[in-house]
Design a protein that fits this description.
Radius of gyration: 19 Å
Strand content: under 5%
Shape: elongated
Number of strands: 0
Distance between the termini: 75 Å
Structural class: mainly alpha
């Protein structure tokens, strides 16, 4: 009989739904521009949870144009 493993196995990499990062900022919207910058920073730091949250804000934002 073999001894059971007492160490964890390698992590499982699950595919990420690309829709979670979708969200196109509206042109000339300062809020959208700031959110897009925040999303890029989160991705640069590897914080996907924050990037998903910001993408959701961009998708749900009312996109008010400001000159």
């Amino acid at each position: 009989m073999t001894e059971p493993h007492t160490y964890p196995s390698p992590p499982v990499e699950l595919p990420i739904d690309p829709w979670l990062l979708e969200g196109t900022p509206a042109a000339h919207c300062k809020v959208c521009t700031a959110l897009a910058r925040e999303r890029e920073e989160a991705l640069a730091y590897g914080d996907r949870s924050k990037a998903y949250e910001v993408s959701r804000e961009i998708r749900n934002h009312r996109h008010v144009s400001t000159p």
